[in-house]
Amino acid sequence: MIGGISYASLITQLFMGLQIGLVYVLLAIGLSLIFGLMTVVNFAHGSFFMFGAYMGLFMMGLTGNFWVSLVFVPLATGLLGLVVERFTVRPLYGRDLNDPLLLTFGLQFVMVESVRLIWGTTGFPFDTPSALTGPVNLGFALFPLYRIFVIVITALIIFLLWVFLEKTSLGLIIRGGTRDSLMVRVLGIDLSKVWFLVFGIGTGLAGIAGVLAAPMRGVHPDMGIDMLIQAFVVVVVGGMGSLKGAVIAGILIGVVVSFTTLFYPMMGEVVIFISMAVVLLIRPSGLFGEEGLLE
Amino acid sequence: MSFLSTRSYLGLILVIAVLPFILPYEAIATQILIFGLFAMGYNILLGYTGLLSFGHAAFFGLGTYGAGLSLVYLKVGLFTGLLIGVTAAVLGAMAVGFLCLKRKGIYFAMLTLAFGQLFYFLALVVFDNYTGGDNGLRGVPVPPISVGGLEFSIIKSPLSFYYFAFIFCALSILIMNRILHSPFGAVLQSIRENEKRSQSCGYNTNRVKWVAFLFSAFFSGLAGSLHAVYYQLAALNTLYWTNSGTAVMMTILGGMGTFIGPFVGAGVFLLIEDVISVYTVSWQLFVGAIFMLFVLFFPLGIWGTLQEKFRLWRLRG
Amino acid sequence: MSKDKFKKGEGRISRRTFLKGAAALGGAAAWGGVPALSRTSWAQAKKPIKLGGLYDLTGPFATESEDQRKATLMVVDEYNDKGGLLGRPIELIVRDSKLKTDEAALKAKELVEKEKVDLAIGTLGAHTVVAYNIECKKHNIPLMGICQTDDLNKMPDWGPYTFHEGLTPYITSQAEATWIAKNLGTKWYFMVGQWAFGQQIYNSYLKFLEKNPGITHLGKSDYPLGGTEYSMHFTKIIDAKPEVLITTGFGKDHTNQAKQMTDFGLKSKMKIFFVLTDLMMAKEAGQASMAGMYCGTHFYWEMQDTIPTAKTFVQAFIKRWGRPPTGYAGYAYGGAKELLGAVERAKALDPEKIRKQLEGRSYDNYKGKQWWRKCDHQSMQDFYVLKGREPKDATKEWAFFDVVGKTDADEKLERTCEELGFKG
């Protein structure tokens, strides 16, 4: 026993932290990708997350099939992302680095209020798909099957993304663009098309994170704002543009929050910011970030 | 620089001198005064030094709580209370600036955000017995001030507070004008344009940035202190990151490349919000959309665009 | 557009000029008289009585605040349809305090200084109603507080014309605690939100525990308001083996907690009690999550089956707005009726006369017997415990709960007049 808590509970708490963190990871990956390649701080990322959840609700209402929604949502959200990029972010290329941040800051209000106008201010419950309801006995604790599903699916998405970035030529261009966009352009590649795609992928990831989170949190207009700051912290701690960083930082932050809540719950929210400040002061570009990126 | 832009601050002072008579009620004029000061203070860092801070709510809030707590618990006089508020903001900035300025760009912004949230948390949870938590610190007394042997209360009427705050505001504008249009101000702008070049000219840019940070916090803290006195309350939401966002939006809206732009931005922002929220609860939709339009099509902001148009008009003769 | 169109004497108004003129005109019109969100059509005929309604229409409790506005409007229209109040039409001037203290103070100043309201009603947040009250007190405007707060009926916030239709967290906790101890168990664990209401309720529960040593306080876990994830609290809660888990979860937190507690199987291990609930939160959580959950409330619409005045209110609300009222709509309805009714009986807008009409008065507007305690103007009313139905038993829409308990109104459930700072 440590501090009056049994080992079994500590392991449970660790596992809790892991699954909490993974929800942030999906959101953070999209954000980090967009940062890394386009040097765009997407303040509206949480709104795409929220939009994904609403799209999931819409699709469920239409088809009643969760799996169909799971495929539909990232496509719908990514599509919205493409439209947003094309008409509001692209005009800002070549201008001040802060401009896209400011634009997406305003966009976030527009998206949330629009959703409120269309679907109302009250949220909706999102039923866990029947195939995934019920608890699983993990030995040390009872755990909802759905959350285990989320862990598995998130791992799968991360893996697919990794394969895409490491093993495909488009992925190579993206990685190259993250490191040295000038060089990539010198090689004759139209980066604006790549950025267009990356924004779509990033927001699509936010969307799927939203629909996956919906059964755990319900669907309501503010759900993105709640997550946004946390997602920023994860990205910054992991290092802008680093996929590995986003994954590790996300899990780490989830675990830190989990254990803080166990021992000192009052600090549960602020420990995230303290962690970020500490990491940034020791490792200036985050855990796995590149020195000199985005400065 | 045209006559208009170098003397614009005089025009601003003239306008805010009569603002309560132009607008429908004094409270909105006072609000504009306070947030105009906040935005202009913020712009020292954003517009002139080129540093995007997302944690300036911390300095506004330190001003609010510094003044509020000292007036409530230490029962100090009014000017002392304001002074303590400003001092708290500057002290906070010394520490926060020292830590955050080690980093640049977006990392700097995120660090400022983190520290801002830290202060929020301190007021909400850690010191809530003193600060009143999310209820805020209520019942801040406003002791009467004595000027030339006469004692009077500045909160006697809405107008009396307005002109009390106006004096501080006008003085601040004059001081900021001196600072920003001096050699020091030129160095700030050189850092914004190209920090390495500025360094190679021999300037200790880290030190300069830190000082700019302090100036910025000074005026933000003053705005916060006035806020506490006006509402007789230290409101917790002034420390929340959305208040930082408000400062950013007002500054951009008005024109971060100009001196009085942020003040204009604060005025327009608050007026739009006030008018729209009477017609619809979705006022944030309009504010967000307007802000996006400005970022896309009017990056110079309202005042910046007007100044530019005026300059071009004069060029054409 | 070429420069030619700007030359004087052209005779043609360019589109740009026209737009500018229209905008200026529109701006001036908006300026001269900013209209209220709702105005009766013949308000211009006679000088209207102005009721300042301040609600937290933006923010996490927007829907409940909207309900407050709607219910207030119902009462105002009831009067206006019968010829008004004191022969004058009532004008409800609505402003949004956005759940922020300084915004509430600003809008309060607008209502009082610019609109010059005669009467005041609002809000939803404890901090915003207190800010509203500060302004109203300065100008002796009677204020009807329609939300939960411990501060409105005590010094120094109380004013001679401050009235509190809403319950206090103190009464709420004492009423609930009594019932919980008798019906659910005596080993308690708490989840406490980091905001004024959460802290006030928890501290009041502690007072109850002091007076009732038979109940064990196993522990508490704090959570930040608006935090979306609660699973990390469950490990230690389960380990503590409580009979009852009492949580201050409200709004989104209520929804998420109910969901996650259900997901993690907490319901089979302990009874769970939400200190407050309302219709919208239950709807967001869904019937499956709410099943078996105990909640406290001052009003639930299905009480119309047993309380005649509830039936009148609920039916009228459904008829006008298409769904049953939330508890907050009830507070607003009851409060507005009391405020306007007092003016009617006093035959004057004089605050002293209004006050005399209300102090010590018993009434029944929508939920059975209530009365105004004289010293602090607190409305004493019955309190109820609800239990979420199983999905198979919830046949009608909005029919989430069964009423399983009731604590009768009792002045002893509230702090004494002396404790609140009133002498004698």
Quick structural summary:
The complex is a heterotrimer of chains A (295), B (317) and C (424). Chain A is mainly alpha-helical and 295 residues long.
Can you put this structure into words, describing what you see?
The complex is a heterotrimer of chains A (295), B (317) and C (424). Chain A is mainly α and 295 residues long. Chain A has a domain at 27-224. Helix content of chain A is 72%, strand content 2%. Chain A has eleven helices and two strands. Chain A has helices at 7-38, 45-63, 66-89, 99-119, 145-167, 169-179, 181-186, 191-217, 223-238, 243-263, 271-282; strands at 135-137, 142-144. Chain A has a two-stranded antiparallel sheet. In chain A, strand 1 (135-137) and strand 2 (142-144) form a beta hairpin. The termini of chain A are far apart. The relative contact order of chain A is 0.20. The model of chain A has no long low-confidence stretch (mean pLDDT 87). Chain B is built from 14 helices and four strands. In chain B, the strands form two sheets. Chain B has a two-stranded antiparallel ribbon with strand order 1-4. In chain B, strands 2-3 form a two-stranded antiparallel sheet. The radius of gyration of chain B is 19 Å and the shape is globular. Chain B starts with a helix and ends with a helix. The model of chain B has no long low-confidence stretch (mean pLDDT 89). By secondary structure, chain C is α/β, with parallel strands linked by helices. In chain C, the strands form three sheets. A seven-stranded mixed sheet of chain C has the order 7-6-8-9-10-14-15, with helices on both faces. Chain C has a five-stranded parallel sheet with strand order 2-1-3-4-5, sandwiched between helices. A three-stranded antiparallel sheet of chain C has the order 11-12-13, with no helix packed on it. In chain C, a hairpin with a 6-residue loop joins strand 11 and strand 12. In chain C, helix 3 runs parallel beside helix 4 and helix 5 crosses helix 6 (196-211). Mean pLDDT of chain C is 88; it is low at 1-19 and 21-43. Chains in contact: A-B, A-C, B-C. At the A-B interface, helix 4, helix 9 and helix 11 of A face helix 5, helix 11 and helix 13 of B.
Task: Spell out the key features of this protein.
heterotrimer, B: 317 residues, mainly alpha, two-stranded antiparallel ribbon, 14 helices, 4 strands, 76% helix, 3% strand, C: 424 residues, alpha/beta, 7-stranded mixed β-sheet, 5-stranded parallel β-sheet, 40% helix, disordered N terminus
